[in-house]
Amino acid sequence: MTASNPVLPGCHPDPSVCRVGEWYYLVTSTFEYLPGLPVMRSRDLLRWQTIGHVIDRPGMLEFDGIRSSGGLYAPTIRHGLGRFWVVCTLVDRDDPSRGGNFVVTAEQPQGPWSDPVMLDVDGIDPSLAFDEDGRVWMHGARLAADPAWHDQTEVWVREYSPAQRALVGDEHVIWRGAVHGAVWAEGPHLYRIDGEWHLVAAEGGTEFHHAVSVARAAAATGPYQGNKANPVFTHRHLGRRTDVIGAGHADLVQAPDGSWQALMLAMRAADGHHYPLGRETFLCPVEWQDGWPVFAPGEGRLPHAIAAPWATGTALDGSWQPDDRRAGAVLPQDSRWTALRALPAEIARADGDIWRMPVRSATLRDATKVAFLGIRQQHADADVRCVLDVGGLADGESGALVVRQSEQDHAAAVVTRTPAGTVLSVVHVRGGDEHVLAEKRLPDRVQIELRLRARGYDLEFVHDGLAVATVDARQLDASSTGGFLGLWLGACASSAASAPRGELAIMTFEYAPADAAG
Questions:
Q1: Which of 326, 356, 330, 351 is CA-nearest to residue 517?
Q2: What are the phi and psi torsion angles at 51 (to 5°)?
């Protein structure tokens, strides 16, 4: 079989993977979106199925007030001592005291997962590894205590006691980056392979200069020897003429036949700069040569086409989730739905194939539990059809088809009920400033069909078959706005700070790659 990269298109950053028997299990970052940390499984590393989420119950963690690109960072999934483990970081940049690193466990990967146990250690990107004698070694990244340069980062390791549910023993700083002056040595993973400990870490920041570095040691606590070839993998040397940038944050996994693969993030950037789909999950072959892992041997870059002789069957148009490949209606039971800082069921109720969403006073500008449901944009060329029933809205309330990056940057086709009739406006909030791109009055009807036609960097809002306004996706992507997210497409309801009274019904929400839209 031959499949295509990325194996998980759209915003699926910071992938972590482990194998148990014939199954591979994967988690990725979800930031302020819930349910958090999807758990996916696959038999071939190509076709994935979401079987649950780690953060899927109210009260497991508090997200209200966490701004965009905060929330859940860089999880790691492992299996050991008869259980599945996930460690992760909850980040609140405005109130660091309520964030931190935590660990959860489950008997089955689909859950239920335990309530989070917070770890008494600063930093981000925690990981864990198991020694042959059952000892658990927790590790992660943080800003160096005494940095030699700005944003120098260090990797620490310390034993974790499952019985005490706490870190124990001495802490050891084992890595400060392979390259002098390189920032953000992060995303560390330790592996016990052939009697040695191997460290794989990211470096250079999760953007254009992202890279992979490796080191090894006789003991988990070091000292570690870096590979003379560090950084052993990157796309930054390809310059801006490549369509995939920012490769890094790799996690290794061994197949039953003894071969090795890595899953890592990278970004598809048609112009070498902008990536509205966000950081995506790519598969990369790995060989061990002279005691070191070699990524994409003989090629030195992420392959567009993946030769997968171990896989059987057919990977349709690449290698992503079955629900994602199905063009058409995204029904309420679809695992792709997410909400902001709340679970979808807390924001709306499913009524057959319809979402009924009570209006909330918050708007997309607010870092709170907004009345919003959305899915990732996974194709540069895609079509969305959204039918909103606005008959239940009160005067002054609105429903919208939304393209969201953050509180400060989003675009929407907004339908507002007023005493004088229904008004459609297309707005682009850029850097916190709102720009009304178009406005028109609508006929007096309650069901409004809105469409979004995404073609590369053009996002065209359409009503009644006519283009209303176009937004440049390059002004919404993370390279322009900051942060770590790709674009989300969805629907929102708001009373714009007034006391909410009404309800928006999402009658239809269809998503299709352009070549499947018909």
A1: 326
A2: -110, -5
Res 316 pLDDT > 60 = no
pLDDT at 186 over 80: yes
Alpha-carbon span 152 to 248, nearest angstrom: 17
Contacts of 377 (CB under 8 A, 6+ apart): 10, 276, 277, 403, 454, 486, 487, 488, 489
- Nearest Cα neighbor of 36 from 17, 14, 60 is 60
In this prediction, residue 327 carries a pLDDT of: 82
CATH number for the domain including 456? 2.60.120.200
Amino acid at the residue 408: Q
Is 333 part of any domain? yes
Specify the CATH number for the domain of residue 277. 2.115.10.20
Q: Is 278 helix (H, G, I), strand (E, B) or coil?
A: coil
The pLDDT of residue 73 is: 97
Which of the listed residues 305, 338, 357 is the one where a domain comes to its end? 305
User: What residues are labeled active site?
Assistant: 14, 186
Q: What is the tally of structural domains in the chain?
A: 2
Percentage of the chain modeled with pLDDT above 90: 90
Q: Is residue 315 part of a domain?
A: no
What are the beta bridge partners of residue 455? 381, 458
Under the banding of pLDDT at 50, 70 and 90, the label for residue 315 is: low
- Domain range for 358 is 327-517
What pLDDT sits at residue 313? 72
Based on the fold, state whether residues 296 and 336 are members of the same structural domain. Answer: no
Residue type, 508: T
For residue 38, the cross-strand partners are: 53
How far apart (Å, rounded) are the C-alpha atoms in residues 12 and 33?
Answer: 12
Tokens of 473: 């996706």
How many Å apart are CA 479 and CA 476, to the nearest integer? Answer: 8
* Domain identity same for 292 and 378: no
